[in-house]
Amino acid sequence: MLRKLILILLLVPVGFMVNAQESKPIKVNLVTGDIYKVELPSYKSTNHTWFYEPVFDSTMLVFLKQEYIEPVDKTNTKDEGKDVFSFKALRNGECRVRFALKPQYGRSIARVENYWFIISKK
Questions:
Q1: C-alpha 43: how far from chain center
Q2: Going by C-beta distance under 8 Å and a sequence separation of 6 or more, which residues neighbour residue 52?
């Protein structure tokens, strides 16, 4: 019985299976060549980090970098910083990017943000 349970747990996909709070898609209109920054609230004291799901077409939208912006008041441990993800629009089309807030060393997902990029030619 234990072997069957272990096998079942190993077969469960690790992706963004979500029972967490999930947002409706935020629509973003871009023109090819535009750089867009997704800013998400981050509380480092909770040990949660934002991750993005790279399921978009990288010939249409490319991930540039992720950075953390410190809170304004560093003495207040509950102050909110920002995780910032930068993307560049390469060609016209539509694609979705999902962001999950989860513990750095865990599987549970606290929150999911969805972005829908609509890219047009210059």
A1: 15
A2: 63, 66, 85, 97, 98, 99, 100
What's the pLDDT tens digit per position in 30-57?
A: 999 999 999 999 877 788 889 998 778 8
Place of tokens 């920002």: 82
**CATH class for the region spanning 2-120:** mainly beta
Tokens representing 51 are: 């991750």
What is the sign, positive or negative, of the torsion defined by CA atoms of 69, 72, 76, 81?
negative
- 62 with 56: CB under 8 angstroms? no
* Three-class secondary structure of residue 66 per DSSP: strand
Give the span between the Cα atoms of 78 and 45, in whole angstroms: 7
Give the span between the Cα atoms of 91 and 117, in whole angstroms: 11
Residues 6+ apart with CB under 8 A from 1: none
The whole-model pTM stands at 0.77
